[in-house]
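[09:14] KT: can someone run the structure on this one? pasting the chain below
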Amino acid sequence: MTTNDVIDHVLDVGQDLPAYGEAAYAWISDNVWLLFLLPLVFATFTLAISVARRRFGRGSLKDRQAFEVLPTTGFDPVIEDVLRFAKQLAQAQRSVSRWAFTPVRGTAVRVRLLSQSGLLTMRVEGPARAVEVLRHQGYRQCEMRAVGAAMAEAERPEIRLGVDLDADSQTALAA
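[09:31] RB: done, structure tokens below
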């Protein structure tokens, strides 16, 4: 095939473009109902997948395990230890087998910093399927202690934004 043959072929196709445009216009005008049906089908499909993901995620959100990181007296991590720990936590989510309907929020690994009676503690929590992976993550000079479900539920943080204070609190603040 020579260059002239390629150019002739491109010119022939270019001459047929108006005919292609007329055929496309005729098809669209004959099938205009399809233009209204496709978004409806897409929205229904998206809604069905969203509902399925939410339902499949409920179990993994209810069944989570938490571990408290307890440092020893000589605990003084260097930046490499902190980065290694962060990388291990990031890989813990990938180690949990996931499939299409398992939501990311159900398999997420969370790190909470809690202050109880002045002591700062770090808690790592994740799905129950990742217990073995989470148990072995951590710093070299720290112990990972399992936190019971009742204790974790009782220590949920309570955030109040714009809530009116009760009468006792108002009198204490006024004094």
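[09:33] KT: thanks! The chain has a mean pLDDT of 76.
[09:34] RB: yep, looked fine to me
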